[in-house]
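histidinol-phosphate transaminase
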Amino acid sequence: MTSDHTQIQTFCIGALTGLTLSYVYNQIKASKKSRPSSSPSSSSNSSSKSSSGASVCAAYARPNILTLQPYRCARDDYETGLLLDANENTLGPSLSSPDTQELERYPSPYQIPLKQKLSKIRNVKPENIFVGVGSDEAIDMLYRIFCIPSVSNVITTPPTYGMYKVSAVTNDVQIKPVPLSPSYDLRVPEMLEAVDENTRIIWICSPGNPTSKCVKSSDVRKIASSFSGIVVLDEAYIDFAESGSLCHLLETYPNIVVLQTLSKAFGLAGIRCGFAISSKEIIELMNRVKAPYNLNKLSSAVALDALNNYSTLQKNIKLLIKERERVKSSLESRPYVVRVQQSDSNFLLFELKRNAKLIYQVMADEYSVVTRYRGAEVHCGECVRVTVGKEEENEEFLKALDGAWERVEGEKSL
Ligand SMILES: Cc1ncc(COP(=O)(O)O)c(C=O)c1O
């Protein structure tokens, strides 16, 4: 890091957090100590426990992001009165029925009611929450904030969610894959060995997609205390997992970013609403970088409604988990199914004796039942992933699977 860079970071983090410059300077010194070196063994000995969100940002955020002046509008200062500041069309929207939501007006850039509600549910403070257009927005944003194109690298643990790679390539960031063990556990020593001085983010998916399995909290602790860069814990499916969210780790590890979404258990993939939960300084950087009005008014209203309707969510989760276990047993009773992965999620990953790709295609083409072939992923040979749906949908899937298996086997024996 150049001394210019350090000065810029000192200035920006001071402005960011309201901390005194001398305090920030000490934080930066502390973060330098805990920064991974090029030697893997020393990197795995470094600790982030003594660091703060400010020092994590100072050491790992891109310099241009630290100096970024966020977009400001008149409404940051004045929210009421005759609002003629934002070139909206005050005649109102051109809709077939009257609008009741003042859609001619931009939405709130801050989404305060939504953050307040989520903060109660997840037991975190509103200032620790970023609201995004799905968690996919947060994934891309973390690259843009913390990774320097063509310099930085990130660690992923395949088989895992594909967007970590898509966003890495988009942002010209190198991926260092450290595959999970065959039983889909994190290989912590190997992950820490892979860290070098340019490693900025470690991506962990829990419950995993496509593994459907939660990672051990002790493993996340080891990683977050040994690597002082950003540790992302993608909890898109966490509401289906008995073990619950690891959001509480944020109190100890300011470098953890938890991602959650309304797309899965809340059944709201169509509104595109996701969250990042982290130390307030990391969230502050995300808020600076985001487009000012990223979440639209319609999505925001629906999201708030869903968060206020927690009992329906819990009822639906119970139903889906019951169905998941029923479908799992049913799959296990089939002689051509080799194994069904125990699931902490709303989908099942299962291995067929052979021809998984063909069977996936026949199910879609002949039975109009669309699942996901995962056999090309590491440790997923001959595997198909299926989302657990309503009882009748699951029955249709099981019938299609039997039909496709018989069809493929029959054709092969001809
Ligand atoms: C592990 C994981 N993370 C994130 C996402 C994206 O979620 P969102 O709809 O909030 O963008 C998905 C979507 O399938 C996912 O499987």
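thats it. The domain at 311-413 is CATH 3.90.1150.10 (Aspartate Aminotransferase, domain 1). The CA atoms of residues 79 and 108 lie 10 Å apart. bye
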